[in-house]
Design brief:
Order of helices and strands: EHHHHHHEEHHHHHHHHHHHHHHE
Number of helices: 20
Number of strands: 4
Largest sheet: 2 strands, parallel
Mean pLDDT: 81
Structural class: mainly alpha
Low-confidence stretches: 1-8
Strand order of the largest sheet: 1-4
Radius of gyration: 22 Å
Distance between the termini: 17 Å
Helix content: 55-70%
Shape: globular
Length: 470
């Protein structure tokens, strides 16, 4: 006879409003705001359109956050979408979301961020530094991979501290990130002899190395730029994953989502305006593939020293993103284990810090494997399509749960319902269709990776010896 599974201990609500906002801002501000200006200029041509895309993507993310807030306040439990999709569409859909995040969504992003950190370090120390270190059984370990894995191990250890301590660390790292973004913008406006006249010119004739012709100008270009901007905003939903550890969730989850996403939107528009003030769209679009606009801006401010300054800034930003991502991501296997769909050990909390230690360690181990394999970039590209399917399904869950659970306690109701959630779904549908048309192989492979979770779920249900948590 089955019995209800209880986690070994209870999560502690140790995240204040400030810490919860820091989790969002630190997770969202990674390298995208520094890397995407060149590609987006090639996609849409003019500074006005690049700014428009950042604003539209930010408002879309904010619309999603305001809708997520209702679900998070209604079900303030660890695991975020695992709970919302399970309640609206059945446990299978919650598991598939968790499967996608564990397989590559979260862990692949963590591997990519760790390698970005190592690449910035190699750039500061010399390109040859990141080369081959040793070969074992035909496998070649590079310096970049070694640093990436060491960084993942370090951040894994940091996340074994109490959630309150992790929240304080996230707050400090967020302050560093905000200072970096503001610093680049202020330096561009203050120390470069730029001009607002750049905003009346176009970068359509730029070299645009590595940018597909189908993603330049027109609807295809706008869709590609939107995906780039949304990648820069990705992570706005991470508070939902740690909802079980937020103090006063009915008030702080909605406030944290609004403040976090709103702050990022303002910062992104500010720093991109600074880029175009300092450099013309043609210059930005003609930067070599792999080049970073922010580094070029800082080079113009302080010369070669600017490269080292930005390398250090990118390292700090990458560290902060990895910390927040691992903090929130570990709550997914914890929640699935709590429901009996993964080994129960993953739901074990440490007696003193009340952290799901084995979930944190397992996540770090798999992210390390992906960092060593070098395949995370390809896999992450495949899963982008599936990720937005789940975002759309989660937003639609608000409509479903309003009908199926009308009497459930809702400390916060989605602002602008039903118009705002409906607009989010319409834009999501456009992005999915556009991606399916422009990148059919990646989209279909992404769906296939998600579908691999179906037999895994079937086996987990058969092996489960406890009833799922309600």
């Amino acid at each position: 006879m089955s019995t209800t599974l209880s986690p070994i201990g209870q999560l502690v609500r140790g995240l204040t409003l400030v810490a919860a906002v820091a989790v969002i801002v630190s997770n969202v501000i990674g390298t995208g705001v520094f890397l995407k200006a060149r590609v987006m200029t090639c996609n849409v041509g003019s500074p006005e359109m690049v700014t428009t895309v950042w604003v539209v993507a930010g408002l879309l993310s904010l619309a999603g956050a305001l809708t997520y807030a209702e679900l998070g306040a209604m079900m303030p439990r660890a695991g975020g979408e695992v709970n919302y999709l399970g309640a609206a569409y059945g446990e299978r859909w919650g598991f598939l979301y968790g499967w996608m995040q564990l397989l590559i969504g979260k862990t692949g992003s963590q591997a990519a961020v760790a390698v970005a950190f190592a690449s910035a370090l190699a750039g500061a120390m010399g390109a040859g530094w990141g080369g081959p270190l040793l070969t074992v059984g035909g496998f070649e370990l590079t310096g970049l991979q070694g640093v990436a894995v060491a960084l993942i191990a370090l951040v894994t250890l940091v996340n074994l501290a109490s959630v309150a301590a992790s929240g304080r660390i996230a707050t400090v790292l967020t302050a560093v990130k905000v200072a970096l973004v503001v610093g680049v913008g202020v330096a561009a406006f203050t120390y470069i002899d730029g001009t607002w006249g750049h905003f009346g010119t176009s970068g359509a004739a730029g070299a645009c190395e590595g940018v597909d012709s189908a993603a330049r100008l027109g609807i295809g270009g706008f869709g590609a730029a939107m995906l780039a901007a949304l990648w820069g905003y990705d992570g706005w939903n991470n508070m939902a994953l740690v909802a079980g550890e937020v103090k006063d969730p009915g008030r702080n989850i909605p406030r944290g989502l609004f403040l976090g996403v709103g702050a990022v939107l303002v910062l992104y528009v500010f720093v991109n305006a600074a880029y175009f003030f300092a450099m013309s769209p043609l210059e930005i679009a003609s930067i070599d593939e792999g080049g970073v606009v922010a580094i070029e801006v800082m080079r113009r401010v302080v010369g070669p020293l600017g490269v080292s300054v930005m390398a250090a800034g990118l390292m700090a930003s990458s560290f902060g993103t990895l910390h927040s991502s691992m903090l929130s991501g570990a709550r997914i296997p914890y929640r699935l284990a709590e429901g009996g769909l993964l080994p129960r050990r993953l739901a074990t909390l440490t007696p003193r810090t009340r952290v799901p230690v084995w979930s944190v360690v397992a996540q770090g181990a798999w992210a390390s494997v992906l960092a060593l394999s070098g395949s995370f970039d390809t896999l992450t590209d495949y899963v982008i399509f599936g990720s937005w399917i789940f975002y759309g399904l989660t937003i639609s869950a608000v409509f479903v749960l309003r009908k199926t659970m009308p009497d459930a306690e809702r400390p916060y109701r989605a602002w602008g319902y039903p118009v705002v959630p409906a607009l989010f779904l319409l834009v999501t549908a456009f992005l999915l269709v556009n991606t399916l048309i422009t990148s059919p192989v990646q989209s279909l492979v992404g769906l296939g990776l998600i579908a691999l979770g179906l037999p895994v779920y079937a086996v987990a249900v058969r092996r489960r010896r406890v009833a799922p948590v309600a």
